[in-house]
């Protein structure tokens, strides 16, 4: 008898995990997803479009924890329930609707980085590794027992999009190798040691302000964590908004005095971000008030070699 599932999903991980279920012969009876918001940069694939390609019924409730949604889920008679980057917590009644269990795919190596935007937070903190974790869902976010997880490396200049692409593949692999045991009701679950990780909240565009007191490594991590398709890291430069999209660690320029705080400098055809700890970043993509800023533009706009960030 074919195993049936109801899937709550969004984003690239949602698309790839949905396709993984279908490739394993899981009968996906219903997909619950989000309507794309007009004020959001939709840079990722559409779960709704993918479900339509396969003729799967789709609903997009603003709130999944309503009697109407619960009735739709129960009417689908799922054996398993999955959440793949769906943005709302699911209530106990929904979690109990599937006799073989309800499982979530999270973009970190739980118990580390529970909660929102784990890829961005891992980069901000300079991690060299993260991953994807499939775990049982409970009424509390990301704290259920682990089915399986897979690590991926974070290279020194990887940005959030690079890391998210790796996690998407890891999520597909983790789900694929876990499905036979889940469908048979024989999966081995391992309780999380929640003392080994913390919970992180969501981030807003205004949270992207660079602190001029940070060292070069922290500035670099912050920039690559928030670069496109995210809103970007920014600071004030001579009363104007500087937004930095890409940086590379580099030797501090010879003969340049160490600044008291993070400062922007143009020299040798290169735009530099000089940190207060005597280290430097070479900037290859930056904007000032929304216009491209490179070394030549800096010399045109300012009569000073170095300007402090605020």
Automatic annotation (TrEMBL):
Highest taxon, organism lineage: Bacteria
Residue ranges of domain Formyl transferase C-terminal in the record: 205-298
One annotated GO molecular function: methionyl-tRNA formyltransferase activity
GO cellular component: cytosol
Family matches, as InterPro entries: Formyl_trans_C, Formyl_transf_N, Formyl_transf_N_sf, Formyl_transferase-like_C_sf
Formyl transferase N-terminal domain mapped to chain residues: 23-177
Any Pfam family matching the protein: Formyl_trans_N
UniProt entry keywords in alphabetical sequence: Transferase
Keyword Transferase: yes
Protein name as catalogued: Formyltransferase
């Amino acid at each position: 008898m074919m195993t049936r599932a109801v899937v709550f999903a969004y984003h690239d991980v949602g698309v790839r995990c949905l396709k993984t279920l279908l490739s394993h012969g899981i009968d996906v009876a219903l997909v619950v997803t989000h309507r794309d918001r007009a004020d959001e940069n939709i840079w990722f694939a559409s779960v709704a479009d993918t479900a339509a390609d396969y003729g799967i019924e789709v609903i997009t409730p603003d709130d999944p924890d309503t009697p109407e949604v619960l009735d739709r889920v129960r009417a689908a008679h799922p054996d398993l329930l999955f959440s793949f980057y769906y943005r709302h917590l699911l209530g106990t009644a929904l979690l109990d609707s599937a006799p073989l269990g309800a499982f979530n795919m999270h973009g970190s190596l739980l118990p580390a980085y529970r909660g929102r935007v784990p890829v961005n937070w891992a980069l901000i903190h300079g991690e060299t590794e993260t991953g994807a974790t499939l775990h049982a869902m409970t009424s509390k976010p990301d704290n259920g027992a682990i089915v399986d997880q897979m690590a991926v490396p974070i290279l020194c200049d990887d940005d959030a999009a690079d890391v998210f692409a790796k996690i998407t593949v890891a999520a597909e692999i983790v789900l694929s190798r876990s499905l036979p045991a889940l469908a048979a009701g024989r999966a081995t679950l391992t309780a999380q040691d929640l003392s080994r990780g913390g919970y992180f909240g969501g981030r807003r565009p205004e949270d992207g302000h660079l602190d001029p007191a940070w060292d070069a490594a922290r500035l670099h991590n912050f920039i690559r964590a928030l670069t496109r398709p995210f809103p970007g890291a920014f600071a004030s430069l001579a009363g104007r908004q500087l937004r930095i999209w890409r940086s590379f660690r580099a030797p501090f320029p010879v003969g340049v005095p160490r600044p008291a705080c993070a400062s922007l400098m143009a020299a040798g055809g290169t735009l530099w971000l000089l940190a207060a700890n005597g280290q430097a970043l070479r900037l290859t993509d930056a904007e000032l008030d929304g216009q491209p800023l490179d070394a030549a533009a800096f010399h045109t706009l300012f009569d000073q070699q170095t300007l402090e960030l605020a």
